[in-house]
Amino acid sequence: CAPAACCSDGSCNDIQECASYLPCQILPLTDPVNKIVLAPTKLTTACTRENVEETEGGKVECEELCAPSSCCLNPVENPIKTCFLEFPVECASFAPCEILDLIDPSAQVPLAPTNINEVCNHASISSDKIPCEEACDPATCCNPNGDGSNEICLEQNFLACASYAECANLLVVD
Length: 174
Description:
Blueprint: H1 5-9, H2 15-19, H3 43-46, H4 49-54, H5 58-66, H6 88-92, H7 99-102, H8 116-119, H9 122-127, H10 130-136, H11 151-156, H12 158-162, H13 169-172
């Protein structure tokens, strides 16, 4: 994990290389100079969709564990106020926190229903495509329409749009 030191101090040229050191997060990298440290390993279970939506106190637990990563948020929307470029490995270790944005009821595109893989697989669509069409309907703004008008929706809701990947089966099954 020693080569990952450049990922913490921002001197690495290749952010993909830094991503390959994410398993190093199990090591205590609590440099008191840094504003942010690696996410606790518990974060991956605390910030699952099931825990946040269905477990009493799950959302609060996830929010509390994600609090140290507040400076990492929205590097695309506000690159000046983010520490993402300075601490890419640490910020990437908080990726499970994205679930908090995805379950926001005011989001333009909600997460896909949990049964989307069942209702939108080739066999299901071949027998009855209506359940898949209904499941995919909230993500219509995610689909490129040729004139670029949906690009902003896709950018702002990228992870939620990605959860509707099975909807592409509607295009290939008659």
